[in-house]
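Duplicate of #3305? Posting structure anyway:
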């Protein structure tokens, strides 16, 4: 009988704890969540939880750093494809939103709770966030090079993230539209405004192979 490596079991257990903690942080807030609650949600004793994480701040860092690392890997992967400017930004928005769809709790923690980390941990997360912002800013500059000279690229990038990052406050993924169907809407709205939107009906999108 094969024996699963301890490192693999530890990785899976830490992932489970992080997932349960992210759900609690997203629902209750970081400050209002206790290690006892994280242990209970993870079906662990409190000593069992402390075997994996020394304190609540380490749990928070593991969630935030893991999520932003995945986002950085995803967007730099798109960047490496060398897509033409007219395709790069829509692709970035789509992959960003699809990852967000699978990690809504983690994304909420990243946008709301990183401020509770110490300065060194915040700097680590912020450095990876800068990579994500830089890739999006480069894509916007490629799509509209005329705006880069007006120093509008960074401003527009933050407008875009403002639209994407706060979808969790109102968007219901079990409603009429999915995250995948919202991606082209967000792209059209950002690039062309309401007057220039050309949105495909969700039913037509679902019928495509």
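Output from current build:
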């Amino acid at each position: 009988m094969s024996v699963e490596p301890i490192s693999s079991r530890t990785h899976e257990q830490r992932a489970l704890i992080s997932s349960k903690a992210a759900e609690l942080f997203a629902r209750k807030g970081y400050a209002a969540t206790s290690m006892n609650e994280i242990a209970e949600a993870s079906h662990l004793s409190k000593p069992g939880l402390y075997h994996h994480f020394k304190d609540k701040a380490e749990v928070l860092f593991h969630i935030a750093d893991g999520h932003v690392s995945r986002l950085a890997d995803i967007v730099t992967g798109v960047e490496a494809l060398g897509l033409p400017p007219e395709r790069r930004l829509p692709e970035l928005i789509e992959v960003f939103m699809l990852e967000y769809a699978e990690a809504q709790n983690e994304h909420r923690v990243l946008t709301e709770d990183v401020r509770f980390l110490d300065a060194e941990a915040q700097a680590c997360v912020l450095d990876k966030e800068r990579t994500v912002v830089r890739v999006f800013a480069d894509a916007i500059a490629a799509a509209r090079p005329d705006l880069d000279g007006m120093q509008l690229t960074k401003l527009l990038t933050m407008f875009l993230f403002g639209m994407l990052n706060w979808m969790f406050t109102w968007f219901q993924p079990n409603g009429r539209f999915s995250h995948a169907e919202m991606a082209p809407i967000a792209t059209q709205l950002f690039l062309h405004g309401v007057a220039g939107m050309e949105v495909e009906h969700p039913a037509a999108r679902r019928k495509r192979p």
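Confirmed duplicate; merging threads. The chain has eleven helices and no strands. The chain has a mean pLDDT of 88.
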